[in-house]
Specification:
The N and C termini lie far apart (131 Å). The longest helix is centred in the first third of the chain and has 25 residues, at 29-53. This protein is mostly helical and 156 residues long. The protein has a domain at 29-95. The protein has helices at 29-53, 55-60, 65-81, 84-95, 102-115. The protein is built from 5 helices and no strands.
Length: 156
């Protein structure tokens, strides 16, 4: 192989060019490879970021509904405001096992309703048999009288 200069190279340019410099009109393979690598790296880092960001929500998913919702809201606040304290608070709340107060209180309320012979709140509200039924409302203006006055009937 001879060291004869390439006819397209400028006479003042060095005669031995490195391999990453492409000739005019050819595809720059290294630039295309670096572009693909850059896009892949950005997607990979974004995926890791969002996985880490949703860590408290995934941890709180098995907990109570209210706790999960509070952790999810804290995560959204952290995402949109960039205040990392919200994320830390959500993570701490997801790690803490909150006691279940509602189940014992519901059981206590049902027991008290049973003792008082009150129908459970789940059933349809109906007046007990020993109380009089509420008066019917009519659309006849003569049937309605102001409070404290007797009804006046018009005779025709």
């Amino acid at each position: 192989m001879t060291d004869a200069p390439h006819p397209e190279i400028h006479p003042l340019a060095p005669h031995h060019l490195p391999g990453f410099i492409t000739a005019p009109g050819e595809t720059d393979v290294m630039m295309v490879a670096m572009g693909i690598l850059l896009i892949g790296a950005v997607l990979a880092v974004g995926n890791v970021f969002f996985r880490l960001h949703t860590l408290p929500e995934r941890m709180a998913h098995k907990s109570q509904k209210l706790q999960f919702e509070v952790v999810a809201v804290l995560g959204l606040l952290a995402l949109f405001t960039h205040i990392h304290l919200f994320w830390v608070a959500g993570l701490l709340l997801a790690l803490i096992e909150l006691p279940d107060f509602s189940t014992p209180l519901r059981s206590l309320a049902r027991s008290v309703e049973k003792i008082a012979d009150v129908p459970p709140a789940d059933s349809v509200m109906q007046p007990p048999a020993n109380e009089p039924a509420a008066p019917k409302l009519t659309s006849d203006p003569h049937d309605l009288a102001p409070v404290g006055r007797p009804k006046e009937h018009a005779h025709a």
